[in-house]
Amino acid sequence: MSDKTLTIALAGNPNCGKTTLFNAITGSRLKVGNYPGVTVEKIEGTVTHNDTELHIVDLPGTYSLTAHSIDEVVARNFIIDEQPDVVVGITDASNLERNLYLCMQLLELGVPVVIALNMSDVAKARGYRIDAEKLSALLGVPVVPTVATESEGIDDLLETVIATANDPEAMERLRLPNYGTEVEPHVKELTAYIAGKSALARRPRWYAVKLLEDDDVTIKHIKELCPDDAEEILARGLKLRSHIESICGDSTEIILADRRYGYISGACTEAVTHTVEARHDLSDQIDKVLTHPILGLPIFGVMMYLVFQLTFLIGGPLSEMLGELINEDLVGFISSHWEGDSLLRSLVLKGIITGVGSVFMFVPLIVLMFLGIAILEDSGYMARAAFIMDRVMHKIGLHGKSFVPMLIGFGCTVPGIMATRTLESKRDRLTTIMILPLMSCGARIPIYTLILAAFFPTEYRTPMMCGIYFIGIVIAVIVARLFRATILRGEAAPFVMELPPYRMPTVKGMFLHMWERIWMYVRKAGTIILVASIILWALATFPRKTEFDQDYDALAKVVQVEIAADVAAIEAATPADAPAAVTEKSKQRIAQIAQNEADRLAEIVGQRESEKLQYTIAGRVGKFMEPVVKTMGFDWKIGTALIGAFAAKEVFVSQMGIVYSMGEDVDEKSVELQTKLQKTYSPLVGFCIMLFCLISLPCVATFAVTVRETQSWKWGFFQAGYLTVLAWLVTTVVYQVGSLFL
């Protein structure tokens, strides 16, 4: 048992190895949630070291504590409000000066700090020698070299963290930046004044510096903490800021940043030496090819092709196997041991198992998609992809960072929307969220596969699949341009993204990276779909029809009698000593009659089930929708199936199975479903189904995460509304124009 529990926050720039270090410390003992009041992920873990329990919190990666993006605000507010015992400032030792800027702000924040010189092996390979002891003396904080990928220096780091937390004099040794003769006196004056306000006395220098920088979040915070004195405090800060700017001829924020970098540069000059002549490293040589103005985009296309090949070639068969395991083995086992036609049995088999199974059967595809993306991210290539795509994205009013969430959206829209948290501009983030459902997620693949197999020859299926993906991208570009010119008008934020050195991804890092996303997908989407499937089962079950327009049992008996008579006639006309050829021909005719009987009985059962479905709430809604969907070439049956697609796109396939009276076990009878679709609809209608499902309102999981991430029901309903209207308009035009030529 530990004697004490310490809260340790990990802070650092993106690509400094912070998450790798977190994983090296905590292993798999982590918990993922959200910070209170916001949608940014909160990743925590616990580890015991030298009888001390350490509660580790991995803060969002940020370049500074100046509040621009949600991640920066969250990282800063956690340190201020939660008051961790120690903050570990994680730096990329091979890019020390840039990384130390955040550490300088941590020192000004007035918290115990330990600096981790991570990726020390990379720095050494680049010819840098860092004197950790000298750097520690210059900054007044402990400095510990680490190599997170190899778990080197972890024990030293934890021991230093514990010692710092238990050192009452740790704060007194901090050496804060001096802003020079023109600025420092004003900083001290404002600090002394703020220190007299009890609500701000804990971090007076931090509030003073942020006031001089005209930081909006700090100003709001001061108004909340000191409502009576806020006006006077802000007025004094404005007066001093104006005086500094009149003397220095530049904004105070730029002046303070410049002095911090000067302080950092001086410390690095003392503590860092170059052991070899500066040279372009391997990363620079690779970048000459991968970020080439002409070759970069085709190379990226090949990379994405390989990711999709990995996903579909390997994941496709695995998904089919999992689907068979759920839809045949599990359902068959329960059916054989649970006979009857009770509502509870129907709920379990057709509602819960099929509904949740429709999510789980696609997990292999999602796993492999995220594995491919994790490899590209951890190796450092994904940052290059965003850099390459910046030119293209800028033309639609966005920038390279928006490309990463859109790419993730091809796997699943939910984590794609969550990935927009890295975007600093609210307009960029909203625009990206609004167009993300137009990326063909994995849930649409079953729909595309069913339609392509039913209506198009094998040689046309791959071009059609690529075409539907391309159509989604084109529509997204057009919509983004429209939004940026109207409701989300504004300049695109400048694109600044670090190109980290290439690294060999570690198995452990990729697994944890992938597992976090998969678990989020299964937990959130699975829960939502479970509830939605139960609701849809109820809609397609009630009210139950007991009196039918026809006596289907009598019709079935008539068919059976007619078939039996035909078979008897054939057998009577075939003597026992007839030649083998005659006997074989008779057997073939009897087999054909038996097949006809099965088809006619299936048609009768289908008519009965169709009548039952039309009587339910779902069927009535489908009939009500028919005048609207008819313009797209759809009938009430397709309209009924589209209701299920709101729960999850892939549920459309199962709902079509219900409509055509084949139960939920679509995999077992997929050929029959394809045949019936061929007999009922034209290839144009099939294409229109794919088009509508591509554009129309997102699944309920996407709607829910849109509301959560935008913190507004308005944007959730707007997204669902505009996509549905757009889908109807585009599909109607395609069907009506196509009907003129086909």
Shape: elongated
Q: Sketch the major β-sheet.
A: 7 strands, mixed
Given helix and strand content, the structural type is alpha/beta
Number of helices: 31
> Which stretches are poorly predicted, pLDDT < 50 over at least 5 residues?
32-39, 276-280, 661-671
- The residue-averaged pLDDT reads 81
Helical percent range? 55-70%
Q: Going across the biggest sheet, name each strand in turn.
A: 2-3-4-1-5-6-8
What distance separates the N and C termini?
77 Å
- Count of β-strands: 9
- Radius of gyration, in angstroms, nearest whole number: 32 Å
The percent range for strand residues is 5-15%
Describe what this molecule looks like in 3D.
- The chain has 31 helices and 9 strands.
- It has 742 residues and is of the alpha/beta class.
- Among the domains are: 4-173, Rossmann fold (3-Layer(aba) Sandwich); 184-274, Helix Hairpins (Orthogonal Bundle), CATH 1.10.287; 296-539, no CATH class.
- It has a 7-stranded mixed sheet with strand order 2-3-4-1-5-6-8, sandwiched between helices.
- Strand 2 and strand 3 form a beta hairpin.
